[in-house]
Structures are given as structure tokens and as C-alpha cells.
Known about the structure:
By secondary structure, the chain is of the alpha/beta class. It is 47% helix and 14% strand.
Amino acid sequence: MHPSRILPTVLxxxxxxxxxxxxxxxxxxxALPSTLSTPKVYVIPMHGQMGTDIHPQPYKAIxxxxxxxxxxxIIIELKSADIDNNFYLKNDDQKEAGQVHMEEYRDLVKSLxxxxxxxxxxxxxxxxxxxxxxxxxxxxxxxxxxxxxxxxLQKVAQLASGWxxxxxxxxxxxxxxxIGKGFLQQGGYPxxxxxxxxxxxxxxxxxxxxxxxxxxxxxxxxxxVDSSKDSTVNFDATxxxxxxxxxxxxxxxxxxxxxxxxxxxxxxxxxxxxxNDYVESWRKSYDRCKEWLDAAQNVDExxxxxxxxxxxxxxxxxxxxxxxxxxxxxxxxxxLTRIQLEIEVDNIKKEIARNKNTGGNTGGGGGGGGRGxxxxxxxxxx
Length: 382
């Protein structure tokens, strides 16, 4: 990046990280209802890929729905892992790895916590490896399933590794980790824990005072959680509970509600339906887009082929507008953006006009027609 563009980028990230930190203390912790024997529970899923499945689009509808339902307790159910539990299989799909949209995730947390601030909210981690772990720390009441992981925040520091200038890299590291720490501050977690989760060179231990625990940025505590200077700290459910990071371990929703003090509860599942419908819809749309793009590669040349290709590209553009997640996946897999497609459609329109003006004898020359689109070559048949 040109030096003249670096400073605005760094400043924007610094301002962003400071803004999140400032809001952290503004959101109060709502107490669980003590007079209800059967509370109404509203589950907000955070399942799947960060940046596509876990995207602001469905949560706007979920927030509006939750306000209508008026639940007594909200459970944020997190299941987003970039690495499979079966390490020996090496079957992780890199296309499904979490995407880097930290400011968007910050705004999502802010929306859920502020717009639904009158309802107690509990974070229940079923599995989290990658950027999803930022979300886990944004809520002060944390529970985990017995096989849950809370890993992967070294990815935040890795965002600064692409800068060759050491001064710029240091500034970018401070900015990115500043945003990352904002999530922990939002949940009321100490910066010592944040440093160890985000920075490989930091160590972490814990000391106990009665039933309370305190985190230390070194190995002087009673329990050494992380003594390595080569990797960030990761938590399993047992360690998280024993050190006081997690409030408890629950494998089912019933177990979780029992730990919260309720033997019975009413399950309001409309938020889950909104989320599941969104994920199913955008992924179907994404699959159709791949079919349309493949078909665009195989149309005949000539004015008829131009029209077919234009129609197929316009369908993809429509899907991208309807579901931003579709564009994000196509950009990751094919290097293809909506702007590129819109330019290509405009080129095809010009090509069609030239064909009409010359009686259809150009034979597809003159550029356009979709060749080379997205780095994958989406022109017609050769």
C-alpha cells in the first residue's frame, strides 16, 4: 500500500477500536428474573461461518422479532469453528473459514446488547475457533458445552503480518488488537486475559482469592494457564470453568436453564427459525450463482450468446444484492465482485449494440462478453 494511504487506514482502525472500548462500560448487565418459575427463553443462534452465516442481515430481523416476543431471557448460542475436532482428518474447508469483518462484528454485538438491553443475555458456547471467539467474550455471562473449544484469536494479530514496514505493522497490530480487546471489555473481561488471547508472546496465569479468581500477565499465579511465548492461549470447557472464565458447563438447553436456576422454561423458537431460513436461503442462492456462472462460460458466441450471458450475470448481481453473503463467498472463491459483474454487463450491452449497428458481423470482438471475469475466465465458448 502507498504510504499516503497507510495513515488513514491506521487512524480509522484506531478510532474504531477506541469507540468500541468507550461503549463497553455503557451497557449494563441485566439480572436474571428471580420471580418467574417458567421464563420465556429466546435463542439467538450464531452458527456457521463468520461473515456470511453470522452476518448483520438476519440479526436485524431477529432483534425486531425479539422485541415483539418480549422474552425473559436471551441465550446467544455460538457454534462457529474454523478447525474440525478430528485433527487427523485434515478435512477443514477453507472456504468456510471465518472472514475478517471485525468492525461489522463489533456493530452486531453493540446492536444485540443495546437494542435488547432490557432482557438478560447469556452466552452459550458450543464450539468456537476463529473470529467467533471474539463474540464469545462480548457477554459477561458465559457457559460452555463439555466439548466446546474457545480458540483461535491469534488470527487477530495475524492481520498485521502482511505489512513489510515494521512501524506500520506495529501500528496495525495495535489497532487490530485494540478492536479485539474491545470485545473483551464489552463482556467485562480483564485486559490481561485479552492480551494472552490475542498476542502469542503474552503469558497468563490465575490466582484465587476465596471463590474469586484474578488473571495475571505472567506465570506467577497458582494456575499457569499459558507459559508459551509462541502461541496464544486457548481454552477448553474444563479449564474455562476451573479458572472462573466460564460460569458453568451445560450440554443441553435444559442443563443450561437448570444452572441458571430454572427447572422449567418456555422456548420461543422464532429467532432460530429466522436464522435458519436465512442461512438456507443465502446458501441456495450461492449454489445457483455458481451454476449461472458456469452456464455463462458455455454459451455460444454471437448476439444470442451475449444476451444469455448478460441475463445470467444479472441474476448473479441480483443474488448479491439480496444476500451480501453471496458476494463475499464468490469474492473469496473466484475473486469476483458485484462491481466487476456490473461492468461486465455494461460491456455486454455495448457489444450487443455494436452487433446491431453492424448487422451482427462483429463475431464477438471488441472486448466485453465476459472474458477473464473474476480471474477465472467467464467468456463464452471458444
